[in-house]
Amino acid sequence: MTRIVAGVAGGRALQVPPKGTRPTSERVREALFSRLEHLDVVDDAVVLDLFAGSGALGLEAASRGARAVTLVEGARPAAEVCRRNVAATGLGGRVSVVLDRVERFVQRVPVEPWDLVLVDPPYDLSEELLGDVLRAVLPGLREGAVVMVERSTRTPEPTWPDGLVRFDDRGYGETRVWFAEPAEPASGSPSGR
Fold it and tell me: Does the keyword Transferase apply (predicted)?
């Protein structure tokens, strides 16, 4: 059973789509959010969760104090599970669900810049499409934002577009997580978190 790890909805159970998704384990979510909270990018943040699946990552962010979370999922059954999970956790005031293809959604200009973008695509997503998604989110990032990409340890590091710089990566069993931030426009160097 998948549950919210911590925060106001900690311990609440989450439904998982019957097929086509790979929910991030509680152990990985706990370690991931420990790192993100250390970076101070969760509390009061505007969060975008792409390829949301069950919504576990975005809901974890909302439970831990994110101000606004958008879950984007292209598969209707998974988006319906996201909606049920939002209702079950009581986080509906802060979390919205969008049924749309991620590559189309990220072409829109956000209403408010994102502080945190969580990208957890299917492991079989092509590196080219992942690169296109990362390039498309770049203009919507707030200064100091963090982009997290979760993939299998068997996949290569994402190809970061110009303007987005990796500053850390962590391995958790079969899962690898990369963290990137916008490069500073003037010097072209990242903050060096």
Answer: yes
